[in-house]
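Listing 4. Sequential folding, example run.
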Amino acid sequence: QEGYGITDTWDEIVDKMMEIAPTTLEGVNKRVTELDSTVRQRMDEFEVRFEDAQFDRALLRARVNTLYRDRPDHRRTAMIMDREAMYSREAWAFSMDMSSAIGAHVRTLKTQVAALITQTTSLQTQLTMALGRIEVLEARDPE
């Protein structure tokens, strides 16, 4: 078999395989380690997100429970606000009525004042005329 070179070729193949095997094993080990690191990192990220989601759900649950528990208070508040709005409308209507009544009274008083001014002016004119006559009479008849 030596003359054909089969043994030499076989030995070379085995030697090369022995050289490649550790390199391949190291490469596989390196890739497995990288994969393990990636998986651990992603698991850590998932756990953080999962915990955040659970925390958010707990907050939402607490808010819903609070709203449910406070529902009668909200209903009562809405009723009070409706009642206050009704009272405000009634007070506004009353104030408008009073404003109209006061406006009418002011107009009446203005009319009365104008009449009194006219009457006073007339009386002043009469008084001035009477004083003028008195002066004329006194000038005619000196005592």
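-- end of first protein; second protein begins --
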Amino acid sequence: MRIFQILGIVLSIIISVHSACDVCASDEHCEDPTCICNSTLYNNTGSSPSPTLDCTAGIMSVYISKCWLEQNGYNSTYIRLGNDTCIAAREIVNDTALMALHRPLSTNDCGNNVYINSTHVIYSNKLYIYGIFQNFIINISCIYPLYTRVSVNFAIRPLIGVTQISIPGTLSTLTVTMVIYKDVGFSSLLNENEPVYVESTLYVAVMIPNLDVENFKIKVLDIYASASESGPTFYLLQDGIVR
């Protein structure tokens, strides 16, 4: 009886130590306990690293193939921005293993520099990639028009509206939220079933998360009411002037 008990303990220890890989991408294979790049899918081309940059929704996102880096003699575990504490992490995007960085577009974040000219705001940083034979420092930047006018239409119902707006001249988008309140303290939301009478006082809040308030401002130019999409419109605010 004691012999069987000892064997059971040994087996349970072996089972508890064994662990499977995390989810591997299509260009990786599992070598317990980690995912390893499949070197047969990438050639050593000798070309320079070519990251992808996305500036959507006020976030600077940088992506570069993890397995391409390793096959071409670069250190995939230490890719950073201007601030050496801002380091890329592995992500699987479209079933491919990438090293990725996601940082808000704000002044001084991870070494961001902001330049403003007469027409645009430019957020710039440097991407550091280290290799066996040579290192690369790549300049990256997100560029936004300094002044832009966009239209956002909300129906009274729902009283909390959310939409995506595109920034002209870029591939970027921002999320805009509009909320209607009944009180000057912006604490009591207008109920969907409450009637709104002529000359009622309403308080409208327009918010854009992730907007760099040091360099961008929100200006509401027009607010109007209409009983239906095709009905006449009555302006409460037009060209920034209360009607």
